[in-house]
């Protein structure tokens, strides 16, 4: 049971606010934002998803830069409320097509109608996009996605004014195409977030992939579909080695550490032929979430070496290698490295031939093919220090007080697990090649001439935690 629900922008503007029970004072949005903005408790710089202020419990999640918040005075399950906030964000995105501040403001009547149907007097009624269609009557005002707005993975496929076929996934599930035609499409996204820790010499210490097979359905009549995965997929190690390469192509068996499925998925034949059967609900939903620690080739490799370069300065030699095909481009690449507190100034030197744009204190790299070699030099504050103290500072503590080097990036149409798509079979089938993690086909059981199959499935690789130790 929740008392209030509201959505705040990054600036703290109250975009949507609904008070269901009148138990909590109206100033909670201001109190929440001020608390989150200047959070310094328990040695943390960011507020946890759940905290209490003056007897009021605050729950929040951040979705594409927007803060979805719920408040209550009673003791409720945190995981229940956080999942509810995620589902509300997903339902709003299904109806608006694009979830951002502009779309919320233009469709506030529709958003309030959705909230009144999802929650009644603080109690959850339904979060199903399909069920809500019977009770929600306002039409969405379609807002075209801007490349400056965080649209999630779908926004990565915008190319100026030209749209690739898959960008139709950012449209509302309740709005028809121009001319009143019904959209008969289903989209599949393979999204993987990779976490890697490198040693200073570039060796991988830990690695992990968190992946999602995401669908968005525009099919009328809710036909049954079948999604086939590769035959050598196995769940859990079962005592086998991750280096048990059995494929004739040398790609090896796919071993997932664990996974979970959407509630609509039936697993009757999963053990026999690795096929998932489901009746897709309207809107966007994760068919399967999985985690894999099987060895894989990282898209970037980082080397970082720290050296004393003189009596008053130290240097870091940073090398970033791109290890993916030249026909793929990475974007939104940011490399960051914290420097010691006693740093007076820092200089940055980039090797000839590497392309970069100046951003903050280090740089933002917008190239995927050039291997980047750079040298960062910083000068320490020696006021009040003698030479012996400086040697101790530079030699003994500088490694502990510097770094680690962290990296964030996005690579469209690339998967660290090597999932790729070739030309499909004729008809309503989507086919892929024999590669480690594989979606062999997506088949619609009901025959219809109005279905519009595409030739490819979209892939996105994101950096979840990508760091290199000094």
From TrEMBL:
Matching Gene3D superfamilies: 3.30.450.60, Mu homology domain, subdomain B (2.60.40.1170)
GO CC terms, sorted: clathrin adaptor complex; endomembrane system
Question: What compartments host this protein?
Answer: Endomembrane system
Listed Pfam families: Adap_comp_sub, Clat_adaptor_s
Q: Which SUPFAM superfamilies match?
A: Second domain of Mu2 adaptin subunit (ap50) of ap2 adaptor, SNARE-like
Report the PROSITE patterns cross-referenced here.
Answer: MHD
Q: Which family does it belong to?
A: Belongs to the adaptor complexes medium subunit family.
Q: What is this protein called?
A: MHD domain-containing protein
- Taxonomic path: Eukaryota, Viridiplantae, Streptophyta, Embryophyta, Tracheophyta
